[in-house]
């Protein structure tokens, strides 16, 4: 779900997340030391484009990769220029690892993200989402990962998202998760 259009595959969290918050842990040599969020710069779009075209990421997200022109147009006119969009690049030790996006569609605020495969299973998504949720304080906040993308579902649930039903995108069933919904 790259903001603000349904459905870019973000919110699918393409990889498995490891334990921890992204800091070095005893016995873990792959855990990143510094996960940071920053403003997206034009050069990041090439990284995001390549990540979207990773076949395994596309399979997990159930989102078909876009052609370059459509991808760039979407990011420059809808995501980066969207008045209600909060978008951040995820970096690990200075390297672009992915992105997080929040946007409003109708009466709901949505969360989406994409993490490059090289960063799966290292706690990067866990730490990045924690940092993002400090900046994106709107609640309720919705996400809708593909139901078979268990890594993404686990990531969201770690941060307090609760299952609230299912939604359909074309022929695929996605879980609807919500953070901070009224009881």
Give an account of the 3D structure.
Belongs to the acetyltransferase family. RimJ subfamily. The protein has 183 residues and is of the alpha+beta class. Strand 3 and strand 4 form a beta hairpin. It has a domain of 103 residues: Gcn5-related N-acetyltransferase (GNAT) (Aminopeptidase, 3-Layer(aba) Sandwich), CATH 3.40.630.30. The protein has a seven-stranded mixed sheet with strand order 1-2-3-4-5-7-6, sandwiched between helices. It is globular.
**What is the highest CATH level, the class of the domain at 35-137?**
Alpha Beta
The succession of helices and strands, N to C, reads: EHHHEEEHEHEE
Amino- and carboxy-terminal Cα gap = 26 Å
Can you give the mean pLDDT? 85
Number of E strands: 7
Sequence of strands across the biggest β-sheet: 1-2-3-4-5-7-6
Major sheet size, sense and barrel closure: 7 strands, mixed
Helix content: 25-40%
For this structure, what is the CATH homologous superfamily of the domain at 35-137?
Answer: Gcn5-related N-acetyltransferase (GNAT)
Low-confidence residue ranges: 1-29
Proportion of strand residues: 25-35%
Structural class: alpha+beta
Shape: globular
- Calculate Rg over CA atoms: 15 Å
The CATH architecture classification of the domain at 35-137 is 3-Layer(aba) Sandwich
Keywords: Acyltransferase, Transferase
Domain N-acetyltransferase: 35-182
Family: Belongs to the acetyltransferase family. RimJ subfamily.
GO molecular function, one term: acyltransferase activity, transferring groups other than amino-acyl groups
């Amino acid at each position: 779900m790259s903001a603000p259009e349904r459905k870019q595959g973000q919110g699918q969290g393409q990889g498995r997340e490891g334990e921890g918050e992204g800091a070095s842990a005893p016995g873990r040599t792959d855990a990143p030391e510094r996960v940071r969020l920053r403003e997206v710069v034009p050069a990041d779009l090439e990284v995001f484009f390549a990540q979207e075209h990773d076949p395994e990421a596309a399979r997990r997200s159930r989102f078909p990769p876009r052609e370059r022109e459509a991808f760039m147009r979407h990011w420059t006119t809808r995501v980066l220029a969207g008045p209600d969009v909060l978008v951040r690049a995820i970096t690990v030790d200075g390297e672009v690892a992915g992105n997080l996006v929040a946007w409003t569609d109708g009466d709901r605020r949505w969360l989406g993200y994409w993490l490059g495969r090289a960063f799966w299973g290292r706690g990067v998504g866990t730490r990045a989402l924690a940092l993002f949720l400090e900046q994106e304080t709107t609640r309720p906040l919705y996400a809708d990962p593909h139901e078979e993308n268990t890594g993404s579902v686990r990531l969201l649930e770690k941060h307090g998202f609760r299952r609230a039903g299912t939604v359909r995108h074309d022929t695929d069933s996605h879980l609807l998760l919500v953070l901070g919904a009224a009881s």
